[in-house]
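batch_manifest entry 22 of 60
target: DNA-(apurinic or apyrimidinic site) lyase
source organism: Equus asinus
requested by: lab member K.T.
priority: normal
notes from requester: please return tokens only, no post-processing; we will run our own comparison against the previous entry in this batch. if the run fails, retry once and flag.
--- input ---
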Amino acid sequence: MPEGPELHLASRFVNEACGGLVFGGCVEKSPISRNPEVPFESSAYRISASARGKELRLTLSPLPGAQPPQEPLALVFRFGMSGSFQLVPRDMLPPHAHLRFYTAPPGPRLALCFVDIRRFGHWDLGGEWQPGRGPCVLLEYEQFRENVLQNLADKAFDRPICEALLDQRFFNGIGNYLRAEILYRLRIPPFEKARTVLEALQQRRPSPALTLSQKIRAKLQNPDLLELCHSVSKEVVQLGEAREAKMANHLCLSMLCNLGQFLPLSGPSSPPGEGKFLDIVVAKWTRPPHLSGGSWTSGTQRGQVPQEEIQGTAAGT
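--- output ---
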């Protein structure tokens, strides 16, 4: 189930994948979706995204001279249990693509799709964050901490800490797996009263005798619950970025392995008519041209590709 870090990664994906693309035409909604129609049509517009907690805002911005004249339109998405964005060829739409934005010619014929298998996801027109949600644990840490500690009299904190952590008025972006990780790291019993756990943080003050570096070190080594809400979310984002980079490398290697059968071996001892990936100069993948103006850059020679990536590609991972 997507939580704050996944929404943040999704917004980054949209910005990187769509940064160099021009979209055009109407926004197409699946006939089975119960979400509202998106009354937007433009001959040329761009798409950008931002995230806050468990919400993602998508902004459609017409380019100068686009027809018919349109004001920018923003939609706010909540992903439910299975929502995600995918950029795919226009003629290969995935199942359950409930909202589709198509690129304009003469560029690559692609579609940005909001895919939601279980259909619990939702979008609203207007671009306003949902009222009542607190500051984002990932991007608005100081406001998030202040909002919790100044409102401990709220009846939400009469509940067990495992329940209070899911209250988006105070923990916007925290969900099931994040609360489990945070409570496990601190060895806090999940049914401890939330107010009892959090009131102790109001009294937590570093010793005035400590230097600034010592205070920072102590904070990193002994984070409290609110600090972990922020830092564990950041860890998930970093893991997601590393995974995307690894998948990009595997994509590069897989594509070149497929190309290798058509390329002659470069070594003098190579059997005639064969081709092997490791005997060619490998193009190092940075980002394909339709993703933020990236490119293929040559330079990785035979023997410089990490063996674990080669094995992973050969194994089909």
